[in-house]
Amino acid sequence: MKLTIVGCTGSMSGPKSAASSYLLQAPGPDGNGGTRIWSILLDLGPGGYGQMWNYLKPTELDAVALTHLHADHCADLVSLHVFQKWAPCSSGGTISLIGPKGTTERIGQIDGNTQGSYDHEFDVTVISAHNREVEIGPFKITAFPAWHPVRAWSYRIEGPAGFPTDEIGNAKQLGPVTQTQTAVFTYTGDTDLHDPTIAAANGANLLLAEAGFTATEVPTNPDGSETRGIHMTAERTGQLAKSAGVGALVATHIQPWTEAEVVEQEINSTWDGPFEIAESGKSYLI
């Protein structure tokens, strides 16, 4: 598998990056006895869809998987909708869209409810407590409940280890090389640290985890105690990587006003394995 950071700024688009949007790719069957590259976008925040075109032809996108329906993770569905409906090069068919309950209604809200149904552009699969596994091409996606103010999921994704040599580009191997045919990638989406998040990341070869707060940015309650259940501090992001025993960590969803050096220091206080701060355009082999 290969991960490309399309957009990674926390809570909004920023001066250096679109909001949360990550391209995951892997070789899989083409339906004709051969293989092709399958491509999934994980979240589609403001500016993400246009930036994706720098890495992938829009006609080659197979699916979008949303972790939750906050605007910074899904607002560019409106751009995808426009392409699916109006672009001359579009197939005119539907694209797979995976997300929590309310995903279909959210498309209408973002688009201003300009049409009665969006079934001609999107084939929606709703993730729920009773429907947590989805397979798309070579990817097996398992959802774990996140700890966030709205219904949200973290995704554990299994797929083929490695990537075709002629398609690697500038992708780097951040952690140990996978010794098995199947690799595991986990994307936390937005969540505070809790047991299901650790389970989602358990043994992952690469963990893409949010670090939405630093220690000084955490909101407090009226009694002065720390407000939980929104984002992880960077320290907790490191704790997650350590508790889950991951191969490598990429920290993302950092606010545009936050200094990366502060995030790095907090992660280093709890995690001594390989890690990087997400930057738009970086790619990683899994």
TrEMBL record:
SUPFAM superfamilies: Metallo-hydrolase/oxidoreductase
GO terms, molecular function: 3'-tRNA processing endoribonuclease activity
InterPro entries in the record: Metallo-B-lactamas (IPR001279), RibonucZ/Hydroxyglut_hydro (IPR036866)
Domain Metallo-beta-lactamase as annotated: residue spans: 40-254
Superkingdom assignment: Bacteria
Record's protein name: Metallo-beta-lactamase domain-containing protein
